[in-house]
Amino acid sequence: MERINDILVPFDFSPPSEQALAYALDFVGSRPGKKITLCFMQEKEDLKALEKQFADIRAGLSKAFRSELDWVHFSPPSVPGLIDKSRELHTDLILMGTSGSQDPEGTTHTSQTVLSTDCPVLVIPQGVPEEFRLKKIALVLGSNEIDDPKDLGTLLNFARTFNAQVHVLTIQTTPGVYGYSREEEKNERLLEYYLEDFYAQHTFIESDDMVEGIFDYAQEKEMDLIAILPRNHVRNGKPSEGRLTRILTLQSRIPLLAIEH
């Protein structure tokens, strides 16, 4: 995806959704040509109340905000309803908040959305710093060949927009020599081609716990965003069950970008 102009923010007036909206406003900044659409989701809709609440949100915008802000609604709230709405609006990015869960076998509406949609999703965990920063991105990459190299175009869009460096991380759970297989060498060429000068380095780490290894690296290197290429929708090879994607969505304490296709 070469552009990210239309952003859909699910909004149910909860603290996570309010934090997601704040992040979205910082994300588009003062750049014209962007559009944020709030997707109001309530069990019982009151359109007059929603109109007033949207007006209050608009009234609180900074004068520097030059993008478009709009709203849609549907009821009752559901993951399929949200995905249908994103397709109807030709959304480039779903940006949604989450309170997360420390239960590795748990699930949330956010994790369900990430695993179900074919649209990129930017997950904003509750409690991220209020000061917006996006300068260092950790792309988690396995040893499998990248399924659709064009997915890296979405990451390049992020890197170009914020002049961010992309640090690629591969976690290995068994000892060995890595980075020299046919798939890994092809991935390296794709990273260099698609990410251009924003590609910083590729780090290989051995860890018994993949999730812990990812979070430890992100914390140690002070990453602002973790990016993943979920394999539950791959066109080439066998799709995964999405367990790693689900756990990262549940437990990440920094923003997580799931680049779906």
From TrEMBL:
Pfam families: Usp. Residues 6-125 form the UspA domain. It comes from the Bacteria. Transmembrane segments: none annotated. Belongs to the universal stress protein A family. This is UspA domain-containing protein. It comes from Robiginitalea biformata (strain ATCC BAA-864 / DSM 15991 / KCTC 12146 / HTCC2501). The lineage of its organism: Bacteria, Pseudomonadati, Bacteroidota, Flavobacteriia, Flavobacteriales.
